[in-house]
Structures are given as C-alpha cells and as structure tokens.
Amino acid sequence: MRLPGNLVVIGAGLLSVVNCLFAEQWTQTDAPALPWWGVAISADGGQLAAVNSDGGIYTSTNSGRIWTQKDAPSNNWGCIASSADGWKLVAAGGYYGKGSIYTSADAGATWASNSAPIANWNSVASSADGNKLVAASSSSLYTSTNAGGWWTSNDAPVLGWMSVASSADGTKLVAAAANLLGGVYTSTNSGNSWAKVTTGLGVWRAVACSANGDVIASEYGPLSGPPTRIYVSTNGGVSWTSNNVTGFSIDQHSPWAAIACSADGSRLVAMDGYIQTSTNFGVTWQTNDLPNEYWNSVASSADGHRFVAVSITNLSGGGGEIRTLYSEPSPRLNAALSSTNVVLSWMTPSTNFILQQNSDLISTGWIGLTNSYVLNSTNLEQEIFLPTIGSGFYRLATP
After folding, report:
1. Residues 51 and 72 placed together within one structural domain of the fold
2. Residue 220: its pLDDT value, please?
3. pLDDT top residue among 160 and 315
C-alpha cells in the first residue's frame, strides 16, 4: 500500500504454508503426571509456566516441549500469570487450602513473597509489562501496581470471585463471581472501582479479555434452563452475545472451568471435560481431539495460534497432563505514519518471522532488516520505525 505524503510502498508476504487451526492436534508434553491447576504463556508462546497443587512450579522455554521444575516454596499452588515476555511471573496458592501470592522477576528462578494476605486465591492476571497485577480470592479482589511488591484491596463487593483478566496495559480489568449473586464486573482504572456488566442471577466461572480490554469472553452457568453457555462482548461488557456452544462437564455441578483468548479477542479456547476453540469471536466453535479429562486451565499466545492446557487428573484417577496446540500463523503487516517515520507493525507471532525489504516485487533480492523490533505493551504488536525516504516493499517471512 502507498502511504500518503511519502514515497514508501508497503507490501506483505509470507514464505510458508498456512494451516487451519483445527488441522492440528493437541500434543502431550513431557511434563510429569501431576495435578496441574494453572498455566501461563508469553505473548510469543515460547515461555510457559505451570503450577501444581503438590507444591511445584515448572517452566518451559521452548513452547512446552521440555519442562523444568523450579525452586519454589510450598504453597498449595493453584494459579499463575505471566508478563508478555514470560520473564515476570505471579503465582498464588488456594487449592486444597489457603495460600500466599509470590512473584518472580527472573522467569521462576527465584520467588518473593509480599503483602497480600493468605487466602483461597482462585485466579491471577498480569499486564504485559508485569507491573500491574490483579488477584481474585474467594471473597475479595486485590491489585498491585508495582509488580506485586504491595497489594491493595478495593471496593469490589464480597463475592465468590473465581477468575480475573487484564488488558495489556493493566488499566482495564475483568472479574467473574461464581455465587448466586455474582456476575461479571469490569474496572477501567486498574481496579480502583468496579461496575457490574451482567444482569440476572447465575454462576460466572471464567473470564478472558483482549489486549485492549474491549473484547470479553465469559463462561456462564444459569440457575435453571439452558445448560452452560459462553458469552462474548466486543464493547467492554456493554452488550453480550451468546452462542450455541453448550457445556458438557464431567461434573454436572461444575460449568466450564477456564477460557482464554488472543490479543485481538478473535481466537478463543474454552474448557471443562472437553476443549472447544473458536476463530471468530465465539460465533462458532470446534471440538478438538483432546481426551475427556478434568481440564482446569488454559492460556493463549498473543496471536492465538498457540494454546496450552493443563488437567488436574484423568478419568481413571491418574495424574494430570500438559498439552499444547499450534497452528502456523500468518501475521498481517500494518503501516502507519508517525512524525517523520513509517511504523510497521504486526501481532507478536507464535513462531519466528523476519521483516524483509526489496526495491520491487519482481526480483528475488529480499533483504532481512536488522532494525530492532519493539513490543508495544498496549496491543502486543511488534513495531519497527523506518524513515520516510525513498520507496520500498516489505514483507514478513519465515527464515
């Protein structure tokens, strides 16, 4: 495309075969058979972290192929969240007993406790930079603006909080309460105040939100009537749309257990006894090939082309497992003017892409650019700034 006011011409290309998400199968990793309760993933899908209630925290630096146990304190671990680069982690206890919140600034190598009270922590979420955190206990919501160094309670009502999610900048937060008077609540000021955005009685178990906080997906179990459904809002909770996906829980008293989405909110994954995925904001859903287990947590890379899921136990009573799903992404190359520069941007991909330049579209002389990419922490896109001098064609390509 030609940008007005300069001679730069931008093009996009992809040197790979793009596969459909559902053509791929979930792959079992080498993680030990343990009761896995929570999992987190970096924006590019390369750094993973998981917690189990036997007291262990494991991490992977190669998209889940190999897992390494970390030296973490015993804490009834139940949930974990990650910064966009996977370097900062926040994990909390709460399953099989109360626990504390710990943070790590070195990908799980060391852990620090903080001012958060001991409680039944059900969920934690992190901003892209890992500085703004939110945690949900059975009765309260707590937030931190300094990477977990200090935690503050706020005006959220005392409800059975089960799940929290955060926008990339940590300004917009979402929380779900599972008791009969609960619902979905949102905050637009990093948790200083909260507003209910759902009506009626029902059990809300899990929430996810896009990088900008506008797309919210939530799992709902009504008191009576239709079975469990997933609701999606594309305007920050002002209005909601349900779909035809229905719950098929192993335990009929336990609705969908977890949900996650890509940075733009278009690609979703939701789980309980089985796992379903969507590529169109939840309008339609696809059942995957995973076995029927007690799946409890799921996480998504920024582009939604790499998912990771963990289970507590299998149906025969054995240990749980960790599985991943990958489909090759085809990131869209965007261009915009910024002062005297052209800004090229693309969603952080879950595989390695390089930006190439050429003087025309005919020759084969594509050259990889050595300029440093910068992660935009508000939308999880990679950005590169180029001078608006001359003309050229650009494309994203696999090495």
Report:
1. yes
2. 84
3. 160
